[in-house]
Amino acid sequence: MSRRPVNPARRYNDGGSIPFVGSVQSKTRSSPLLSIGLLVVGAILVVGYLHSGSGGSMSEKEALSKVEGGSSCMLEVQRSLPILRKAYGDSMHKVLHVGPDTCSVMSKLLKEEDTQAWGVEPYDLDDADVSCKSLVRKGIVRVADIKFPLPYRAKSFSLVIVSDALDYLSPKYLNKTLPELARISAEGVIIFSGYPGQQRAKVAELSKFGRPAKLRSSSWWIRYFVQTKLEENEAATKKFEQASTKSSYKPACQVFHLKSYH
């Protein structure tokens, strides 16, 4: 956006925004008290910015996600952990998360009391940070193509939570991946999926995932679950909704609770 020069004196007289630059440039000599005041205000602003970025209200990553055109369901998983804990109780003791940026989810899950957690990253981790690479070295996070069978025995995890990843799969691969996730879970699969129109395809998204996200409606998912003989976990769904209401929590993504294969 081009900027049009503004007369500093006019902006000051019109009572507009605080003329930090204008007042300094409009005088050849600045008062020492004015300079000190500007420094103090600047320091306060910097401290406030750093405080908010360190986890006060919204993380830098979360802010970026919302600015770029949609809410990441990975972030929604992190927000919903207290609700999932109330809905699933002891079933949260051994969890597998599947989806992009699973390292971020691991950083939250591993802090949960009495919870063991592992993650599957469906895409490359070339740009991963040090902490993420550490999780990979420890075997907590593994990179795997979820279009193929995962290297886990049946019922290896109490719960499998998947976010975003299924939105990038065509029905051809969904037919293989979703039953596989149900196979390796003992007590259920929780799916976080974006709402139609929630996100837009971006250059970075296409280069990493190979295709834009296919965000499907809840009616599409329900028909698909019926066709693939995946049953809704009605008890978990009811508990999740009750806990959400009590906590005034409104998911920014669609959340589906499915039973595992028995």
Listing every helix as H and every strand as E from the N terminus to the C terminus, the arrangement reads HHHHHEHEHEEHEHHHE
Q: Strand order of the main beta sheet, please? A: 3-2-1-4-5-6
* Share of helical residues: 40-55%
**Largest sheet, if any?**
6 strands, mixed
What structural category characterises the helix and strand content?
alpha/beta
Computed over alpha carbons, the radius of gyration is 24 Å
Strand content: 5-15%
Q: How many DSSP helices? A: 11
User: Span from first to last CA?
Assistant: 58 Å
Low-confidence stretches: 1-30, 49-70, 200-204
**Tell me, what's the shape?**
globular
Mean pLDDT: 78
Q: Give me the count of strands.
A: 6
Protein architecture, described:
The chain is α/β, with parallel strands linked by helices and 262 residues long. The protein has helices at 8-13, 20-25, 32-56, 60-67, 73-88, 102-109, 130-137, 171-183, 203-209, 218-227, 234-246, and strands at 94-98, 116-121, 141-143, 159-163, 189-193, 254-258. The protein has a six-stranded mixed sheet.
Characteristic key phrases:
alpha/beta; 262 residues; 11% strand; disordered N terminus; six-stranded mixed β-sheet
Topology record:
Blueprint: H1 8-13, H2 20-25, H3 32-56, H4 60-67, H5 73-88, E1 94-98, H6 102-109, E2 116-121, H7 130-137, E3 141-143, E4 159-163, H8 171-183, E5 189-193, H9 203-209, H10 218-227, H11 234-246, E6 254-258
